[in-house]
């Protein structure tokens, strides 16, 4: 019997999203009968003009102390917008000695970027994705370094520690207020795993003026999207925000191409006194992503006849379920003191059951399918972050100082059917996907329990109105305990420690420009820290350092913004093969990168705007040996796997007639390699996306969007035998309304 939406059983494939689409359609779409107390023009895809305000109405006169009272402008680079990703001192990019971008949620949704991955890679300078179903679709490259252990991801300033190389939340952009991207080492702010940069997704916050909005979309490949956003006061001193988004599709693959997801984000702000505020937020994410692990190469290329084939089995399954609960407290006892505390509980449950490896065998003309993998992740993290900020004087100069701590406890279990034996072969062009079959049972492989505490401090000394010095330091001390029921002797307890720091100077020749220089250090784990194996426990954290200089400028009365940065990063203590014992790893390797990045935004006329960025990077292994054919080969001088030397984005918007606006964007990613020897190349590619919006009324908009307009066949990531292809050309229509 089909499940009804009221039954409380475990969710089946697409069940949650289907229930939401049906019920929300009945509630939201006839929403013209629901009247807000105030109507505001639609500036965004369902987001009202007023995202954050400082004072509530209704004559209360109470100050609204939302924990992040900053609103990103919908256009430009937001060089004057304060943020907390580049500094804990609430500095703007102009005041920060680092490369930081603030990407507004309004811009993201106007450009039709439905996933966080699209929003980052199509907007941020130099960031590319290597996301795949195995890593949760959330892995990136930045400044020559790749993967979830080198490019950290945060949600509202909080980090879920990486478990077994996987991050699965956040993924949807409907509830995003902005995305803050910090490029370069950031361990001084967030700990290990951030030598390439940090991505912080900041959700929408409670508001004081009522907001109600909805979006519905239909597209090719059976795409269906529905979302709503609501916020406002629910009492004199209580305010809320609720966002719900669901997406479904049949998919572009001939076999097993469907996917679905559901994202719910809610927050309540209680203004206890004019100086004290509490915000309780809860976020839930459910994903059944595309069960696609790539298209095998035939003769070193993609055969047009196999482009839309999925070689996974019929009963394959991928399910990611995440919950994030945070209680934030902000107290300003005086104008010069601010105390913040965040208590959080994060949980992630993941399940994979797939055949994941496909190789074409020329001798038989068949696709050899191996690695029937079933894995469960169960991860739970409880923690608390506290900091206190002070403004005053030091040696007669204006000074800002912040200090605090972060503590957490993480439990992780990995259930699997290792060693993943069994194989089948199928015809590349005509085949039955078959069913999952493994020679090995699925049992608990290992479990870990980790504790971590950190102490951090940051200071800004303002020497003159034009010159300031900024410094920061952080000490991390994680402890990892691992148990292995299959091999009890493989259990261990390991303590780590790391000290990171940053020094920088910012000089403002004018109020609208800045020159900066900085030196920063960082640490990365040799693998996901909370899932280290016995063979990795005696290795230290890899260390890195960066020197960066840059220039930032607003001009043309704010209609133009420009940033330019140059940097050099070195990373030591990489795992390499012992030249005398190639099967044994030693920690003596090194890797480096240097490059330049430029970003510009120009409002050319009243109805034209162009934004673009380019990143040029030379990354290489400096000392990196791997076992090859019974010996050890040093790949010094070679380009790291999956790291492109050139990345660029260009967006042009044109309001060509009253109520009409067109946009076109081009994403370019340079050539990459799939092997250490740089013999297996993945080609460069350009993807063109476009849209046309028609503003039906002041409160509603109709949009037509085309993705991959030129139907480019390109690899998002891949190996020597398989490419994970990006989606082909597709079209969507969407209707957005505020009421």
Automatic annotation (TrEMBL):
Where does this chain mainly localize? membrane
Recorded GO molecular functions are: siderophore uptake transmembrane transporter activity; signaling receptor activity
This protein's membrane topology, according to the annotation, is:
Multi-pass membrane protein
Q: Which GO terms describe its biological process?
A: siderophore transport
> Which SUPFAM superfamilies does the entry mention?
Porins
Q: Which Pfam families match?
A: Plug, TonB_dep_Rec_b-barrel
| Keywords, comma-separated and alphabetical | Cell outer membrane, Ion transport, Iron, Iron transport, Membrane, Receptor, Signal, TonB box, Transmembrane, Transmembrane beta strand, Transport
Per UniProt, subcellular location reads as: Cell outer membrane
- Enumerate the PROSITE patterns for this protein: TONB_DEPENDENT_REC_2, TONB_DEPENDENT_REC_3
- UniProt domain TonB-dependent receptor plug: residue ranges: 94-198
InterPro entries, per database record: Beta-barrel_TonB, Beta-barrel_TonB_sf, Plug_dom, Plug_dom_sf, TonB-dep_rcpt-like, TonB_rcpt_CS, TonB_sidphr_rcpt
**Which GO cellular component term is one of those annotated?**
cell outer membrane
TonB-dependent receptor-like beta-barrel domain boundaries? 277-709
- Give residue numbers for sequence motif TonB C-terminal box: 722-739
Q: Which family does it belong to?
A: Belongs to the TonB-dependent receptor family.
By its UniProt entry, which NCBIfam families does this protein fall under?
TonB-siderophor (TIGR01783)
Protein known as: TonB-dependent siderophore receptor
Species name:
Methylorubrum extorquens DSM 13060
């Amino acid at each position: 019997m089909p499940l009804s939406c009221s039954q409380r059983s475990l969710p089946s494939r697409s069940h949650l999203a289907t229930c939401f689409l049906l019920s929300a359609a009945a509630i939201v779409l006839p929403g013209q009968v629901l009247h807000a107390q105030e109507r505001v023009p639609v500036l965004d895809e369902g987001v009202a003009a007023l995202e954050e305000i400082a004072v509530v109405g209704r004559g209360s006169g109470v100050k609204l102390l939302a924990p992040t009272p900053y609103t990103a402008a919908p256009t430009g680079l937001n060089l004057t917008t304060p943020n907390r990703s580049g500094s804990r001192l609430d500095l703007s990019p102009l005041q920060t000695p680092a490369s930081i971008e603030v990407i507004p949620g309004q811009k993201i949704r106007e450009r039709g970027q439905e996933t966080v991955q699209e929003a980052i890679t199509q907007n941020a300078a130099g960031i590319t994705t290597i996301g795949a179903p195995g890593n949760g679709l959330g892995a990136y490259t930045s400044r020559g370094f790749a993967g979830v252990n080198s490019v950290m991801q945060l949600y509202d300033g909080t980090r879920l520690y990486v478990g077994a190389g996987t991050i699965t939340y956040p993924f949807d952009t409907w509830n995003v207020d902005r995305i803050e991207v910090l490029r370069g080492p950031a361990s001084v702010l967030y700990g290990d795993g951030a030598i390439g940069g940090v991505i912080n997704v900041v959700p929408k916050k409670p508001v004081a003026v009522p907001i109600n909005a909805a979006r519905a979309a239909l597209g090719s490949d059976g795409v269906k999207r529905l979302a709503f956003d609501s916020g406002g006061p629910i009492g004199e001193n209580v305010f809320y925000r609720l966002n719900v988004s669901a997406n479904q599709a049949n998919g572009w693959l001939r076999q097993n191409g469907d996917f679905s997801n559901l994202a719910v984000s809610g927050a309540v702000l209680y203004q206890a006194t004019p100086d004290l505020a509490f915000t309780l937020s809860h976020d839930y994410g459910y994903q059944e992503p595309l069960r696609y692990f790539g298209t095998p190469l035939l003769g070193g290329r993609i055969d047009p006849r196999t482009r839309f084939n999925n070689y996974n089995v019929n009963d394959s399954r991928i399910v990611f379920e995440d919950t994030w609960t945070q209680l934030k407290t902000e107290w300003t006892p005086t104008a010069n003191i601010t105390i913040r505390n965040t208590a959080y509980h994060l949980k992630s449950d993941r399940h994979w059951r797939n055949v994941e490896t496909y190789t074409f065998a020329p001798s038989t003309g068949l696709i050899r399918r191996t690695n029937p993998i079933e894995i469960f992740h169960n991860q739970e993290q409880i923690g608390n972050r506290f900091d206190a900020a002070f403004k005053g004087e030091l040696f007669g100069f204006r000074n800002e100082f912040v200090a605090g701590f972060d503590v957490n406890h993480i439990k992780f279990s990995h259930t699997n059917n290792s060693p993943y034996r069994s194989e089948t072969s199928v015809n590349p062009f005509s085949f039955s996907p078959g069913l999952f079959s493994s020679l090995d049972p699925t049992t608990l492989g290992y479990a870990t329990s980790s504790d971590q505490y950190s102490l951090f401090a940051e200071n800004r000394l303002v020497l003159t109105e034009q010159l300031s010095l900024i410094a920061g330091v952080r000490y991390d001390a994680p402890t990892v305990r691992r148990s292995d029921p299959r091999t009890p002797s493989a259990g261990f307890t390991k303590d780590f420690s790391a000290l990171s720091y940053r020094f920088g100077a910012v000089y403002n020749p004018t109020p609208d420009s800045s020159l900066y220089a900085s030196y920063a250090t960082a640490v990365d784990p040799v693998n996901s820290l909370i899932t280290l194996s016995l063979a990795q426990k005696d290795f230290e954290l890899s260390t890195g350092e960066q020197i960066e200089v840059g220039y930032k400028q607003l001009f043309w009365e704010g209609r133009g913004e420009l940033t330019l940065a140059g940097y050099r990063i070195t990373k030591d203590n990489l795992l390499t093969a012992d030249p005398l014992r190639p099967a044994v790893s030693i920690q003596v390797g090194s890797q480096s990168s240097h490059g330049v990045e430029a970003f510009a935004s120009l409002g050319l006329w009243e109805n034209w705007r162009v934004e673009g960025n380019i990143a040029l990077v030379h990354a290489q292994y400096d000392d990196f040996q791997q076992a090859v054919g019974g010996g050890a080969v040093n790949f010094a001088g070679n380009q790291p796997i999956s790291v492109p030397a050139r990345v660029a984005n260009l967006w042009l918007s044109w309001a060509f007639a009253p109520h009409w606006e067109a946009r076109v964007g081009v994403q370019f990613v340079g050539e990459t390699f799939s092997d250490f020897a740089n013999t297996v190349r993945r080609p460069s590619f350009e993807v063109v996306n476009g849209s046309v919006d028609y503003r039906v009324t002041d409160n509603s908009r109709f949009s037509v969007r085309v993705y991959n307009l030129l139907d480019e066949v390109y690899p998002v990531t891949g190996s020597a035998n398989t490419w994970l292809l990006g989606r082909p050309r597709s079209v969507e229509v969407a209707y957005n309304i505020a009421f």
